[in-house]
């Protein structure tokens, strides 16, 4: 799981790149999604629903070219992500190259495959930072939500990460199932010696969007969790820095998504597609350039995909004449598409949007839904796995294929 606000990141040493002639700044963040393969099956996975359609991975040499081009462009922060990046046996070679280039490197991992041997090799290769994900503070929910038995292993991996002297971010994606456990999750992070805890409220794209009815919390759950976080911040100070961001659906103004489209973030998918945002693959009509065919500089500065929603020129009403547009740039394009059918609309989280009611309804549905403890959910959770991905991809291509969301899920 990845977040642009990843704590603990520091700028790398190196040249200060300049903005292009027309004022477009260089990318600062490179996210290398090395693979969509993953041993876990998280119900909120941010990988695209049809990830099985994009499984032809870049080679080691191609990834090294990406790193060199991105560094030359000016990128300083580098996240190795996936899927699970540890399934690539060239990870150490890529970390070594990134280190030589002067990137500040972060491994974003579920912990599966992070043996002592690999930790030692990654340390020797120059890896700076590790972000380890947990699904919950309890074995039962951790293992249920990832559809794997990984809780004990993650505990052992966390201890090994600390033994090897890495700064560690513990990441836990929050939703209605685990929000009541926030105090226990914080205790777990403190006990493990994590320097940072990222309590990342679910963003409802990809698999989380399919499972929205199951995962969406209530406002009361969020308020209680926020109060718990505030209490721990008061009592524990900086011992473990806790990040907690209220999910968009519960706000009246959107966030400045990705700190601006084509402004800071450059993602490269496993097959080489270049992404202005993690979820951009889900936007219809947006042709993503590929590093196999196009130099990164051309992708960043000249491609339609990176220019389509860059800056303010593309804004429609009500954003175009809004006096707050410089602050949020119209919000999230993927949210606009998912909830209004047009990625160029104002993010419907905004209460000035004519589609804001769609967000209000989702929140109201969550409030009126039965709680986890008090009864069966209307629809089973759909886990991220290859079979479900193939069915969803086929359904997107051929509307007559049965909807997987109505079938093979599970309930806690
Ligand atoms: S299944 Fe879970 S661990 Fe794997 S990529 Fe998706 S969110 Fe990350
Ligand atoms: S109308 Fe558009 S620019 Fe104005 S606050 Fe809402 S989303 Fe932001």
UniProtKB/TrEMBL annotation:
Record keywords, A-Z: 4Fe-4S, Iron, Iron-sulfur, Metal-binding, Oxidoreductase, PQQ biosynthesis, S-adenosyl-L-methionine
Record's subunit section: Interacts with PqqD. The interaction is necessary for activity of PqqE.
Similarity-based family: Belongs to the radical SAM superfamily. PqqE family.
Pathway the protein takes part in: Cofactor biosynthesis; pyrroloquinoline quinone biosynthesis
Domain Radical SAM core: 24-239
Protein name according to UniProt: PqqA peptide cyclase
Region ranges (Disordered): 1-22, 393-412
Binding site residues for [4Fe-4S] cluster: 38, 42, 45
